[in-house]
Amino acid sequence: MNYGILFERIEEQDFPRGQYYAHIPSLGLTTHGLGIEGAREAARDLLQEWIAEKRANHESVPTPGEMFFSTLEVPDALQSA
Question: Measured on CA atoms in the order 74, 77, 78, 81, is the torsion positive or negative?
């Protein structure tokens, strides 16, 4: 199965520099790692564990769907509220 992953650089001060979120939107899963490759590896590990747990509990594993990405601009006035 081939799941889409969305990477997002982490800007929060609680995280060390160079960390990225890895979101798997179709399953609602998120993890993080150092750099995009670290985040990709963390996502692979999380996904494998998640699928193994679903199968161990005799639950279905959703098949990945088509994925689209877009952005939305928020006016500056709303960002500072």
Answer: positive
